[in-house]
């Protein structure tokens, strides 16, 4: 099976640093493909373009219950992705994700192909650039996508409730991850390793704000260690119980980053 034939795909990368990572979405995929196949008329296509998205998805969803239309749609989607791959000479190393009608590409910053990706396939089939990132890290339960240039910083946690994660961990553990990702792109690998070592020491000595010790997941609860075999979770904790917090979940993430940059350090110094 060719890569573009897959409904979903995730590349086996564990991390990517200072790359051009671009998420391309097929614009209004449902109606665009159906119109390109002449299943929709111009009048129908215009109608669906102009109604609310939720209504459009409901009505097209009903239409796609027809087995012939659904089969045609799936073939049309594969053809659209194949055209995008062929037109932009995309090979397996250039693909980070495929999510149905979305393709996330990877290139080196100096690769001019990355700046010349063309999403226009036909008058009805167009892949639109939705997001750009500069680094990627595979973490437990989620992928951390990071973007930073001299004027802007943004991020996304893919594979998990990103909004809930941000609402709990913003200004705390997320700040640690952003600091690490920023350092990796702007400082030397050795500087980044030293920063992680210093943060890790503070963290393990439980010298940071209590909210840094919420487990880094959408629940964001504190794990309390009563005995070696007796633990419980809580949403609220006070200073008197700081010493009882089990920090193993989050320290495993910090150790993962240390491993990543140690690998990068040795890779750079053994060439």
Write up this protein.
The strands form 2 sheets. Strands 1-3-4-2-5-6-7 form a 7-stranded antiparallel beta sheet, covered by helices on one side. Strands 8-9 form a two-stranded antiparallel ribbon. The protein has 2 domains: 3-7 and 26-128, no CATH class; 169-269, no CATH class. 40% of the residues lie in helices and 24% in strands. The longest helix has 22 residues, at 248-269. With 271 residues, it is an alpha+beta fold. A hairpin with a 2-residue loop joins strand 5 and strand 6 (142-148).
How would you summarize the topology of this molecule?
Elements: E1 8-10, E2 15-26, H1 29-36, H2 42-50, H3 53-63, H4 67-87, E3 95-99, E4 102-108, E5 127-139, E6 142-148, E7 153-158, H5 162-169, H6 173-186, H7 189-204, E8 222-227, E9 230-234, H8 248-269
Antiparallel strand pairs: 1-3, 2-4, 2-5, 3-4, 5-6, 6-7, 8-9
Provide the domain count. Answer: 2
**Largest beta sheet: strand ordering:** 1-3-4-2-5-6-7
Tally of helical segments: 8
Task: Give the N-terminus to C-terminus distance in angstroms.
Answer: 36 Å
What is the rounded Rg? 23 Å
Q: Identify low-pLDDT runs.
A: none
Helix/sheet category: alpha+beta
Sheet having the most strands: 7 strands, antiparallel
Q: How much β-strand is present in the residues? A: 15-25%
Helix percentage: 40-55%
Kindly report the average pLDDT value. 93
């Amino acid at each position: 099976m060719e890569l573009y034939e897959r409904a979903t795909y995730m590349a086996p990368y564990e991390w990517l640093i200072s790359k051009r990572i671009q998420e391309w979405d097929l614009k209004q995929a449902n109606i665009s493909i159906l119109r390109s196949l002449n299943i929709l008329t111009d009048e129908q296509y215009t109608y669906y373009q102009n109604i609310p998205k939720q209504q459009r998805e409901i009505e097209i969803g009903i239409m796609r219950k027809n087995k012939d239309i659904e089969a045609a749609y799936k073939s049309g989607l594969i053809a659209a992705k194949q055209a995008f791959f062929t037109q932009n000479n995309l090979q397996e190393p250039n693909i980070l994700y495929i999510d149905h009608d979305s393709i996330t590409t990877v290139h080196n910053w100096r690769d001019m192909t990355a700046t010349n990706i063309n999403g226009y396939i036909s008058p009805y089939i167009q892949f639109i650039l939705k997001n750009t990132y500069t680094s990627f890290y595979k973490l437990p339960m989620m992928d951390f996508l990071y973007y930073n240039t001299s004027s802007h910083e943004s991020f996304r946690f893919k594979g998990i409730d990103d909004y809930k994660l941000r609402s709990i961990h913003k200004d705390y553990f997320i700040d640690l991850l952003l600091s690490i990702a920023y350092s990796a792109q702007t400082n030397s690998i050795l500087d980044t390793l030293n920063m992680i070592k210093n943060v890790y020491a503070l963290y393990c000595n439980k010298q940071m704000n209590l909210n840094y010790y919420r487990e880094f997941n959408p629940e964001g609860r504190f794990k309390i260690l009563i005995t070696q075999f007796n633990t419980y979770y809580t949403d609220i904790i006070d200073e008197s119980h700081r010493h009882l917090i089990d920090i193993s979940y989050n320290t495993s993430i910090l150790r993962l980053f240390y491993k990543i940059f140690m690998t990068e350090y040795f890779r750079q110094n053994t060439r």
